[in-house]
Design a protein that fits this description.
Distance between the termini: 24 Å
Number of helices: 13
Helix content: 25-40%
Strand content: 15-25%
Structural class: alpha+beta
Largest sheet: 8 strands, mixed
Number of strands: 20
Length: about 625
Amino acid sequence: MRNSLRQLWRTKVRTFLFLILFSACVLLVSVGGNLLFISMKNTEQMEGLFRTIGTVEQKPDGVEKKAVWDAEKETYVYENRQVYESWRTLSDLELEGVEYLSGPERRPYYAAYVPDLQILDDNAGWSNAVILEASPLEDCIPSGPVKMELKKVLFSYYSFNAPQFYYCDHFHKNPEMLYADKTYVMSLEQWLWHGWTIEETRYEHLPAGGLFTTQTQKDGTPLVSGGENIWIQEITEGFWQSEDGKRWMELAKAREMSCWSVPVTPTGDLYLMMPFYQGDACIIEGREFTQEEYDQGTPVCLISRRFAVRNGLTVGDTIHLPLRSANYADSASIGMENELMEWHDNISMEIGLLRADGKAYPTFWECDYTICGIYDLMPGAFQDPGYTLHDNEIIVPAGSIGAGDEENIMCWGPMKGYTTSFQIPNGSIGDFMEAWNQKGISNVEIVFYDKGYSRLESGLETMKRTAVGLLTAGVMAALFLLLYFCHMLIARQKKRIAIERSLGMTKWECTVSLLSGILLIALLGSLAGSIGSIFITDRASERMMQIARYDRTYSDDRLGNTEKEEPEIEGALSCGESACVSLVCGGGMFLLAGAAALLEMGKSMGYEPLELLGSDE
């Protein structure tokens, strides 16, 4: 070794140049290895932090204006209503070559009749829906508020003790005349109209949903086409024994069941529901569903904090849920309110409480559900009417409902972004859209949410390409460098090898004498390059993760929730991890240098000493 070092010392410039260049090669390889390890580690980490969710919404085929009479303004008010010529279904999402991790699913909500539970907070209330018998105090045309005398209450959520009340056929320009000597059965909604204020306590009762149905088949085909909404009818002799009278009694029953019902939403993946995906809702007690519970249809449920508090429910308690009707038109946060407050011809989606046969919806499935978790909406949660959760909404695994709802579909509508969604693998949006565009469906809009995965993925891909480039450049440069210097330091030392062997040194001793100095320089270069890469890697990774944020083609937040933080991933390795990767890369380069030197040395050792001395070199 001493002889080898003396020989290298005689060629200081060449030796120093070899050390510097080899250190630079090791530095390139080590930095590349670190960046590659970072990109692989963060890609794996991102798979656990990010989900790519797609929402599906059918766009209307047109818009029509509908004139609604406003008795207070004494003029027509025009409303734009969306028109759909046909319904799109989940079968449209069957795409060749597309993998779904969850869904696609279209979530209805079911009304569960729970008369023993408290629906509202003690200090809360809503507009009172009533079904009653009444007569006008005098013959009148109810084009404005007229006084009515209460005869009998068939249903009222709140106590109805006033002997008289105001009634107005608010939404018809030419209502039919009412007679003081006749009694009428009426379906009404209590509200403030005609400029009255709460201080005046003059509530006006308006026509509300009466004898009509919106029941459909499973494909959305109405069971009754163009049925008339009857909200007032004269009571004649034998009326309550007639078919109309029986339908009114069923309506009173249905109205009572609606007021004491909670919405139950089935799902195959909790995070397909946008409030949970966006972080607007989260589990505050207990746990969410397990995959086994989804697969086996275990009867467990999640309830809201407010529902739990007002009913004294905790995790582990059991709720009996008799499901009676299904709504495929809206989420519970919209549809449940429409079901309770039905102003005739004055809402976008009227919901009839009766079946096509004139009866209230019966229970089609009931089961005892165990509460496994309690959720709550976060402060500042985005309160879009469709993309939020109802106060009493109960969430269950879709497989836990063991009966079909075909005979109990109360309402049908188009697929909406808050009712229809799916999950695909991260980074596969482009492949999905390519397959989707081949379908040629123009009236369906698909919006993706990935919480910035697309932007982060581009940064990691940039880092990965840079890492592979550095590794390739470092290894190639090292190979050329080793070929050159092995030729200079070994192949051109044949005379020295011949002399040493002629003096009696064995092949092994000659190999140690010649290679020890070279390997020592390679070792120093490997250490220097590895140590240097530890300091450079952190800064290089930060540069690679500075992603351009102007391309938001698929990552825009449809809900306007742009201030939410994206999930964070690690931008660099820990010191220990970086050191390990650097040392492994440096060790690999040292072994490469040793292999190249031994290969060149083996060629020289294949000659006899006299043959080496007689060569031109």
